[in-house]
Design brief:
Blueprint: H1 2-26, H2 31-36, E1 52-63, E2 70-80, E3 84-91, E4 97-103, E5 106-108, E6 111-113, E7 116-126, E8 130-139, E9 152-158, E10 165-170, E11 192-198
Parallel strand pairs: 1-11
Antiparallel strand pairs: 1-2, 2-8, 3-7, 4-5, 4-8, 6-7, 9-10
């Protein structure tokens, strides 16, 4: 009886030790593990993105499991950080077509440079003021990788586990712009979000 108890305690101790090691590695506390991790992106695609602080995002997406095609309607609420805010800049892949951009209820035109989109405001917004930007778009996003474990905005493959066609987002490290208009900054965390996804009736 005593031997069984001892074996049981040894097993628990070994299991707990492995758990601690796993937690240490997962949290990046291990030097060797941390050195092997990719370095974090320290800047946005355009410096003007740092002129606002994102507070809320609402994603309304329509998509299917048969392809990566999607239509989106994304609303962003943000606070101005610059003393004179004249341009709203966000990231969205050039393979996606923008149907409209509306700032504070008024439709605005935009310009593009690769995946950076710039909306010039008619009147500069002052620091501390809030604004709402709505972007409606559609298209088939460029896919960085089409296999599980790869990187990419949206993937569409047949699952080896379930045997069915699946569509999924995989935005690591910085591929969110491949499927929704965003600001990819580790220094600007969104306070809250609503995500609505519409799919066909099976």
């Amino acid at each position: 009886m005593k031997i069984s108890v001892v074996y049981c305690l040894v097993f628990i101790q070994l299991a707990f030790s492995n758990l601690l090691v796993a937690q240490e590695n997962a949290s990046g506390n291990s030097c060797a593990y941390a050195k092997g991790r990719p370095q974090a992106k320290v800047s946005v695609a355009d410096p003007l993105e740092d002129n606002y602080d994102m507070k809320y995002v609402k994603l309304k997406l329509s998509m299917t499991n048969d392809s990566t095609y999607l239509s989106g309607d994304v609303t962003t609420v943000a606070t101005v950080l610059a003393s004179s805010f004249t341009s709203y800049v966000f990231e969205l892949d050039s393979s996606l077509i923008i149907d409209s951009v509306v700032i504070n209820g008024v439709a605005r035109s935009y310009s593009s440079s690769v995946h950076v989109r710039t909306v010039t405001l008619p009147v500069a917004l002052s620091v501390g003021s809030s604004f709402t930007a709505r972007v409606v778009y559609h298209g088939t996003p460029y896919v960085s990788a089409t296999i599980f474990g790869g990187i990419g905005g949206i993937n569409n493959v047949t699952s080896p586990s379930w045997g069915t066609r699946v569509t999924f987002t995989q935005s690591e490290s910085y591929h969110a712009f491949e499927w929704w208009p965003c600001k990819q900054s580790l220094q600007d965390k969104i306070d809250s979000a609503d995500i609505w996804i519409t799919v066909p009736i099976p």
